[in-house]
Write a structure and sequence with these properties.
This protein is of the alpha/beta class and 359 residues long. Helices cover 48% and strands 14% of the residues. The protein has 14 helices and eight strands. The chain has an eight-stranded mixed beta sheet, with helices on both faces.
Length: 359
């Protein structure tokens, strides 16, 4: 209704100003001219809406350490940032699988972690994990599930619960968790456990070693800014056979726009399994603006602009029931349109200088 009032308000001045005499085209086209202005204004409002909602802040949170939390060595910490919204059912399954894998493979993960972190010295100390679960305004028992899990952690790992004061979107939750992490390497992982931790974690650590080796400065003791994106791109052909035509079309259309508007280097921006060095966390997430589903695409744009090294590695991924996205055709189309809008907004905001990068 407010848009109808806006249209009326914009059209009325066209009459009061006598635009039918001032415009160099017939009187019958004056309303079309005004409607064109209205359409342009509404389109601009729609495109720049993600930038508008970011102005007011709204990332207030409360952090609580539920397990561990003693003196830590940052160079020996792997942080796992897990955004969660109404994940009381899926989160415990994911955490149990992760805890079991890390418990039985801690020495192997320690070796990969030290190699990725360019730690040449030999140490008998095993890598410690920092679990940061960001409860993004859940209305179910997600917080209780996290507290029950924390009671199981007895090996010195840290479990931190960050409760957002209101739902702010996955991008806002990940940004908050990353900026409150302590690890030299930080892994973003979805709460549904769709990516197989036993396959994905070794792969991103190995790929990170390659990035660090290629970009490390000889006179620097800090890891270079680098990020490894887990990817499902290698599964497209296989999954295409089971997808509907509309979902297959939307998938390819989205990848086309990611390549055009974000970066040709990354095929799959939306897989919820990404590893960052500490310097990359600071560069990317202090500059991140988008708070909803398309925040990954802005992270790729920021990485391009700030010369953050990025690579992509295929991981084992499977669909998990309980997705927060409506799988209906119309709903998927609307979500895809919204993500395209967000990508255009990102490009426009950086191009016009509305958003400026902190280096």
């Amino acid at each position: 209704m407010k848009y109808l009032f806006l249209c009326a308000a914009l059209i009325q001045p066209c009459n009061s100003l006598g635009l039918d005499h001032a415009l160099p085209f017939p009187h019958s086209y004056s309303y079309l001219f005004c409607l064109g202005i209205v359409a342009f204004v509404l389109l601009a409002c729609y495109i720049f809406y993600p930038a508008y909602i970011n102005v007011g802040g709204g990332l207030g949170c409360t952090a609580t350490v539920l397990a561990g939390g003693g003196k830590i060595d940052q160079e020996n910490i792997l942080s796992l940032v897990i955004p969660a919204y109404n994940e009381a059912e899926r989160l415990p399954i994911m955490l149990d699988a992760t805890l079991e894998y890390l418990g039985t493979n801690r020495k192997y993960i320690t070796q990969l972690f030290r190699a990725a972190g360019d730690q040449k010295g030999v140490s008998s100390e095993l890598v410690q994990c920092e679990f940061i679960i960001v409860n993004d305004g859940s209305t179910d028992d997600t917080e209780s599930a996290v507290r029950k899990y924390a009671a199981k952690v007895k090996n010195g790992d840290t479990v931190k619960l960050i409760s957002m004061h209101q739902n702010c979107g996955k991008g806002g939750a990940v940004k908050t968790g990353m900026l409150q992490s302590s690890g030299q390497l930080c892994l973003m992982v979805d709460a549904d456990g769709a990516t197989d931790i036993s396959d994905g974690l070794p792969k991103v650590l190995k790929d990170m070693k390659c990035l660090v080796t290629e970009n490390q400065s000889n006179n620097s003791s800090f890891l270079p800014p680098a990020a490894v994106f887990g990817s499902r791109a290698h599964l497209e052909e296989e999954s295409g056979a089971s997808r509907s035509k509309i979902r297959t079309f939307l998938m390819h259309a989205f990848h086309f726009f990611v390549k055009t508007l974000c970066s040709p280097r990354i095929k799959d921006t939306q897989c919820g399994f990404k590893l960052f060095t500490r310097s990359a966390v600071v560069l990317l997430f202090t500059n991140l603006h988008l708070r909803r589903w398309a925040f990954d695409t802005e992270a790729v744009v920021i990485a391009e602009k700030l010369s953050v090294s990025v690579s992509e590695v295929g991981v084992i991924w499977h669909e998990v029931d309980g997705s927060k996205l409506d799988v209906g055709k119309i709903a998927l189309a609307m979500v895809s349109l919204g993500m395209l809008r967000d990508m255009i907004c990102v490009r426009a905001c950086y191009l016009l200088g509305i958003w400026k990068l902190k280096r």
